[in-house]
Amino acid sequence: MRITRTGGGRGRRAAAVTTTVLTASALLLTGCSSDDSDSSDSNGNITLKLADFGQFGYKEAKLFDEYHKLHPNITVKEETSTKEEDYYPKLLQQLNAGSGLGDVTGIEVGRTKEVVTTQADKFVDLSKTINVADWVDWKEKQVTTDDGKVIGAGTDIGPMSLCYRRDLFEKAGLPTDREDVTKAVAGGWEDYIKLGEKFKKKAPDKTYFMDSASAMYNAVVSSSPEQYYSSDGKPIYKDSASVKKGWNLAVEATDKGLSQGLAQFDDPWTAALRKGSIATVACPAWMAGQISVNSGDDFKGKWDIARAPGDAAANWGGSFLAVPKAGKHVKEAQELVKWLTAPEQQAKVFKAIGVFPSNTKAYDLPDVKNAKLPYFNNAPIGEIYAEEAKVIPAAVLGPKDGVIKDTISRQINNMAQRGTKPDKAWSDAVDTIDKAIG
């Protein structure tokens, strides 16, 4: 499970979706580890090692079994790290050593700029293997070098929505229909806070409008092309308009007592979902799985999904599959990446665990186009996320995006949890970030 993901803050568990009648089952992560045995034999049978982190959904969608049927001489073994922040340093060590690497490796979006800038020569150029035009246009640009090499194939993206508890909204006298909720926050995250103030006036005892002001902050920043770095690679987080807006809104939400002040994916956060104390969550596509798993059967049908506040589309999260040049089976690994990221396979993963495809040709396939999420009152997530994905702006990425985002988020949480004053929280964030980025 992607409990913490640098550069995306992403925690992933599975949320089953449907195009007809669907159970509300949620799948938990099961990781596989590979051994150090020879990856080929004298009969031409080979084993491809796919190293990744959290939950990419391939095992849950039974894609490795399907690939073996199509290629009887190839077995795919997945080696999964629970946390991305443990996985990435190990990947860098393996790249520098030129050994121990998977034939295919996962890369988190928050790492792409650093990998493209410092490690691109150690990965195969996939520009002739995949058709980059099939992806949302900003996705493959994130892993394209200045000289046109493409070092990764996009897996999923995180188009934004708003997950909310219908029953808590009703008790607080707020609209419950998803279209009405969308209208209530149509003016942007400022309207979201106004809605929170209305909620607070009649909120059920021991409930909070939002789980985390830091999550709202990330959603705000994710809707802007310019976030932490300028297009010429300079860190601008201190003067970034999106950072200022997100920070000010987070301070306002905290001051008004709208946030429970929880760090997403930590134990108190999962406990709050289980107890039912959270009314809304800023909801990139992959978040629905976290909510359904941690809230449990007691809240099935009580959650719903509306469109994100405002008219600025946002993306939060996403990953890639890459092929290291030092892998044992480079040719076969490229074919596996091409197949796993094709629209048909991305649609199957979406159906299995609810993460949204980055390959646009998947959007018209029935498993995506007609998808509904029973746990969330049959919200038409295929429609909601596809429309959002098509208009998400291309964001400027920097080498330390993840460090900056995580540091600021931590200080926002400190304002709620420890009572840290906004000026002190910002000063602490700046000191930490400047030391990290040099």
Automatic annotation (TrEMBL):
Coiled coil: none
Lineage: superkingdom: Bacteria
Classification via InterPro entries: Bact_solute-bd_prot1, SBP
Gene3D superfamilies, A to Z: Periplasmic binding protein-like II
Protein name: Putative cellobiose ABC transporter solute-binding protein
